Amino acid sequence: MERNASTTAWLLTDGNAGNVRQAEALAGALGLDSPRLPELAPRAPWRWLAPRRLPGARHAFGPGLAVALAGPAPALAIGCGRQGALAGRLARERGARAVQILDPRIDSRHWDLVVVPEHDRLRGTNVITLLGSLNPVDDAWLERARQQFRALCALPRPRTALLLGGPTRHAPWSLDSLAQALAALRAQVRAEGGSLLATVSRRTPAAASAPLHAAMQGVPGMAWDGGGANPYPGLLACADRIVCTPDSVNMLSEACATDAPVYVLEPQLARGRLAAFLRALQDLGRVRALAGGLEPFPVQPLRETARVAAEVRRRLGLEDAP
Fold first, then answer.
1. Which residues are bridge partners to 281 per DSSP?
2. Sign of dihedral through CA atoms 183, 189, 190, 192?
3. What is the pLDDT of residue 160?
4. Which of 42, 164, 265, 278 has the fewest beta carbons under 10 Å from its own?
């Protein structure tokens, strides 16, 4: 089908924030300013078996995508996650070039390119690997965040940013270890005269609130507990050092894309692919275990998104794309 140049790209995800963020990051790095996001409303049985293609798959995601597929195909379809992978296959059948982010768990030949973390096992001639995950953090992104969150950047230095995820079966850190770490951070911040900036995620246990707020008592800074606008970009932009829990590849990747040293709470608890990712970061000298204290160390920002985007352009011949 003929492509419509006015619709340069579709971003195809299940709506999960991490998947949307990776797809948007790649689109941004490719210079696609206004990609379209056709609504995906996964239906059974395709929802369960995606990205495998069953009869009638054009209607697997409800009328939003079905109507889009009936019109001109985009130049590029960027999918992330299993649902996005099936939607990308459908867009490719209509004439789009399809890039899948994350391992689709079936043969990569169903997409033009597949982008996966190095700690996944998938390899192939159309597979691009990266350390960590795609994200938008670069010098321009950080500068915009500094301008947006000037009050955070005016807090006393050194500014310590604390990024809290939540315990998982692949990173089973405990609230007791968090409470001990918070007490140590509070003591060091008070001794240095700096400030502490903290943010939680949807996965942070409610029980973490009490030790977090106790650590903030009498210490310059702020703690975001989920109400109102999330100052997360400001924390990354203004931090002199960053402390992370070990449970999120996306969060760790974004922290490591800054120019601040990153310290990880109990990285030795990580298992499987997450453990492999953390070992790679430690081997690069990009992160250290929090247990060793907050001794400063030199770092090089981890900026994989621009490299991956350049490789996508080269392989798909998009050098002249808008």
1. none
2. positive
3. 97
4. 42
